[in-house]
Amino acid sequence: MRSAEASPRWKPFEWAVTGLLAICSLVNDTTPYHQIDYDSLLSTNNPFSGRSIIRDVRRVSEKLYAEKKDASGTIGREARQELKRATKKDFGDNTTHWQQWIETHVKEIKPG
Question: Who's near 43: CB < 8 A, 6+ residues apart?
Fold first, then answer.
């Protein structure tokens, strides 16, 4: 990788590589990526959650979340899909293999 003094042309590229390496650390994350409590308006921690309109919207939203085609989605699975899309490789949930491949092949990649 180039140093912080690298030309501005490389900066976005370095950020992209850093982002890919960060995504590698998520490939085993089993946290669901969509839950109703992630929505601050509908969260039970919302100070207005007891109001009838919020309760009604939450009830409808809970039904929609339950009907989602892919309710089993996790952060790890999304991370793996993004890495596969970006690298055209598939190392499953092996964080080390993903990181090694990116670190090894980043030298071969030339920014546009």
Answer: 36, 37, 49
